[in-house]
Design brief:
This protein has 296 residues and is α/β, with parallel strands linked by helices. 40% of the residues lie in helices and 17% in strands.
Length: 296
């Protein structure tokens, strides 16, 4: 992809365009999951206003993805003038152009029973041909062209993530590590649940019962045991193997729940170790102790 066309205070601007039925809707959803501020079917004349707004010092929006295409009808040709203006203002932008074979697009429209925006009174193929001609110059300006013919949604999303995030793609997966007590129920939004009640319970050790798994003395009691060390190594290896596959499939939030009897000691100490491990791998991790105040 081209890095040129200037830079504006680090703001990333991606203009998503291309043929109708080629996957623009999925593309914008992917950018939204990656933390971009997204607007679909934006009239080109509003692009400069948005860029000006997001360039203000008080703005927290640093990544923007806009979909502009022939649905804008008579306003669409204004996009070329807007792109010229962006270049003059030295505002960095990238154009992502999506296309697909005529057969694929026709099949997708048949399946969804939707009308092609340029074939409201004619055949789909007529609208596709007209759109190709309209978009020809814009395609030539694109920084990246993706042909979605025969491509699964997960493949498209992975292609976009890999291209626009590079080595930071793991940051789009938000991981929550949560400790809980089985006596209070398993967290409803859990994706992975691990029962750590196989470990000795500090509740039955004098001096530890009233303490929590966040305290050094309790952690030491739990983590120094051989079975704990073996478990942590194997579970971390398991996560190291598994999580990249979740990312490839397009998952954006993963909840890992570790439970003990009351959610005060064992699950708390181990959750902190797991969260530390995942953060060290570069993932965006949130740690929660749901039942730590309730006691065993």
């Amino acid at each position: 992809m081209t890095e040129g066309k200037g830079k504006e205070k680090g703001m990333e601007l991606v203009i998503i365009t291309g043929l109708s039925g080629a996957g623009r809707s999925e593309a914008v959803r992917c950018f939204e999951d990656m933390g971009y501020f997204c607007v679909d079917n934006l009239p080109p004349s509003f692009i400069l206003n948005l860029v000006e707004l997001f360039s203000l010092p008080s703005s927290k929006v640093k990544k923007v993805a806009l979909v502009c295409d022939v649905r804008g009808m008579e306003y669409f040709p204004q996009l070329y003038d807007v792109l010229d203006e962006l270049r003059k203002k030295k505002i960095n932008y990238q154009i992502l152009f999506l296309e697909a074979s005529e057969e694929s697009i026709i099949k997708r429209y048949k399946e969804t029973r939707r009308r092609h925006p340029l074939a409201l009174e004619g055949q789909i193929i007529e609208g596709i041909e007209k759109e190709k001609k309209t978009m020809e110059d814009l395609k030539g300006m694109a920084d990246m062209i993706i042909d979605t013919t025969g491509m699964e949604i997960s493949e498209l999303r992975n292609k976009i993530r890999t291209s626009f995030l590079g080595h930071e793609k793991q940051r789009i997966l938000k991981i929550t590590v949560i400790s809980f007590g089985y006596k209070y129920g398993i967290p409803l939004d859990s994706d992975l649940v691990m029962d750590v009640r196989f470990l000795p319970n500090p509740h039955y050790v004098n001096g530890l019962r009233e303490r929590a798994g966040t305290e050094k003395v309790v952690k030491k009691y739990i983590l120094r045991r051989k079975e704990t060390k073996v478990f942590l190594k194997k579970f971390c290896d398991f996560l190291k193997l598994l999580i990249p596959y979740y990312i490839t499939e397009g998952k954006t939030h993963l909840v890992i729940a570790l439970g003990c009897t009351g959610g005060t000691h064992r699950s708390v100490a181990l959750s902190e170790e797991i969260a530390k491990f995942l953060a060290g791998m570069g993932y965006d991790v949130t740690l929660k102790h749901r039942d730590i105040e309730k006691g065993e």
